[in-house]
């Protein structure tokens, strides 16, 4: 018999309903897997008692035939989500020990639908990073190994989520995506992940990084599992002023794999210098797969693509510098009080000790570009270029239904490989950031393996609110690619 | 745009982050590199383009002007590094 942790979320759901196994057995199998994989450092807090409690409730509901959509499904929750009574630190020293007296809307919706929580998942500090190396809780190790058994990063910022899903520690996980933080780690670990349209998921109770970009989304073994989780995560929330008051579609029902009558755009500007041949080849293969599924492939142009990253690195730090002003050592989190110091001394010492190097760097950039005399030249300019990037997409969508692109410019890289050069690290998100700036739904699905045997992702970008089209194109690729590779359990 | 150590110190103070002298020099170099890189936006003609703040059109909603929360002083203070007499406590601010 297949190990329970090897099942997809959909198979777990169906098996629970058929009484093939109990929610308690399913939760226990996952708790054991989490304990056995501590060397991956995917969790910041383990909460086996919460997973088992949810399982108990699920078994009672299943026995009465009153199962909810996620009854008995054990999940991991990214540390960026406030979870009531459980440390929610955004993987930062400044929030270590913070136990929210409230629950984020998205995690609350998942639990209300019957899911249990195995623990909080490690991430880059305040979601700022592409390799999970900026976490105050230490680097997460990718379950996939490189050549010569090299330790690799799991991507970021949702690196604990990607590692935990790929290593079969959780049935699925929440992620958040500001400029690629769901899609890039999904690509690095051979799993699927979708960032919905900005406004689909409530941001309430999610530690804010860049409010005009932040979106939650699911990360899971396959496209169907993402669709199931997304349905529970989405929905209107009056507590978030940017939440969209729209009905939530049945995303799972959209998965037919049939692309007949659909046009898939291939943006010529995504052919960037220095991109490995194997990624170009995979991209071509992805187009072939969608053509075989009935789609028409069309060439499109997104002329402002090369300006997306610099635009992002003005807007995101600017918003971050404002959002992170709240960490002052007064109401929660760390406080450093220099002997005889003033209130200002306390603020400065607290923030200097509490924020890591990358977070400080981004706060300083953000403060600089918003400061008197520079606001127009940097921030306002970036907002205008952002408008042009969005216009590019809207014009492209007159010619196509979805866009196909690589997710990341490389496979997972070695730990420490990019830490000394911030811009080299930022380039990881070159293909992800444009869709974030335009607020569009986008997902990554595994498309194949690199020459070194590492997973590579393909990205599908859709029109606003067309998560169904994105998921279905992802499903078509998944079916054609038949990606079944998985990391060997060395941990 | 090149940023010097003094500018880093000034910006760090605006951001309420204490930066030592040796680190401000390193930070100046890093920030200069990043700011130099983002300056490529200067190439883009944005004449007549409206700045984009809200990416998905959405109108701010009204709600009834009623109390929806409250009476949770203990919860509010539960994570405070220092709380006294039902308040957040901070170092003396008035001489």
Task: Please tell me about this protein's structure.
The complex is a heterodimer of chains A (491) and B (95). Chain A is an alpha/beta fold. Chain A has a domain of 255 residues: Amidase signature (AS) domain (Amidase signature (AS) enzymes, Alpha-Beta Complex). Chain A is 36% helix and 13% strand. An 11-stranded mixed beta sheet of chain A has the order 1-3-2-4-6-5-10-11-9-7-8, sandwiched between helices. The longest helix of chain A is centred in the last third of the chain and has 22 residues. Chain A is globular, with a radius of gyration of 21 Å. The model of chain A has no long low-confidence stretch (mean pLDDT 96). Chain B is mainly α. Chain B has a domain of 38 residues: Orthogonal Bundle (Histone, subunit A), CATH 1.10.20. Chain B contains 3 helices and 2 strands. In chain B, strands 1-2 form a two-stranded antiparallel ribbon. The two termini of chain B are 41 Å apart.
The N- and C-terminal alpha carbons of chain A lie at a distance of 22 Å
Biggest interface, CB < 8 A: A-B, 69 and 52 residues
CATH class category label of the domain at 4-258 in chain A: Alpha Beta
Mean model confidence by pLDDT of chain B: 92
Rounded radius of gyration of chain B (Å)? 23 Å
Class per helix and strand makeup of chain A? alpha/beta
Uncertain segments of chain B are none
CATH fold name of the domain at 5-42 in chain B, please? Histone, subunit A
CATH architecture of the domain at 4-258 in chain A: Alpha-Beta Complex
Helical content band of chain B: 25-40%
Q: Any guess at the CATH architecture of the domain at 5-42 in chain B?
A: Orthogonal Bundle
Spell the H/E element sequence of chain B.
HHHEE
How many beta strands in the DSSP annotation of chain B? Answer: 2
Strand content of chain B: under 5%
Radius of gyration of chain A: 21 Å
What is the helix tally of chain B? 3
Mean pLDDT of chain A: 96
Strands of chain A, count: 11
Span from first to last CA of chain B? 41 Å
Please, what is the CATH homologous superfamily of the domain at 4-258 in chain A? Amidase signature (AS) domain
